[in-house]
């Protein structure tokens, strides 16, 4: 489950926030298998989609994380979950996306696609209301 600013997100929803206000993020990983899983590294990567096949990940002047964008997940037991909190701060207006990926910790090999990525979250940063 992914929550942005307290709202559950799916790939069809655009979350709107204001430039300059921290936007709380929450990612909950639930283990539905019969075995413990982990360790993993959870990484959140913001990008802009130029709608021509190009994704711009060089956004250090437009977005900053409050805290870390990578979290270590040790082990998640069967039928249990693990929740991670962070926040984004948008410095400019625009449409941004957030990739959320899980990787095996201490390994460069990515997990199979069924485990690798959650759907991208679409966030629209707007001017602050005066």
UniProtKB/TrEMBL annotation:
Pfam family of the protein (one): Ig_TRAPPC9-Trs120_4th
CC terms in the record's Gene Ontology section: trans-Golgi network
Superkingdom of the source species: Eukaryota
Record domain Trs120/TRAPPC9 fourth Ig-like: where: 16-125
InterPro entries: Ig_TRAPPC9_Trs120_4th, Trs120_TRAPPC9
Annotated PANTHER family: TRAFFICKING PROTEIN PARTICLE COMPLEX SUBUNIT 9
Protein name, UniProt field: TPPC9 protein
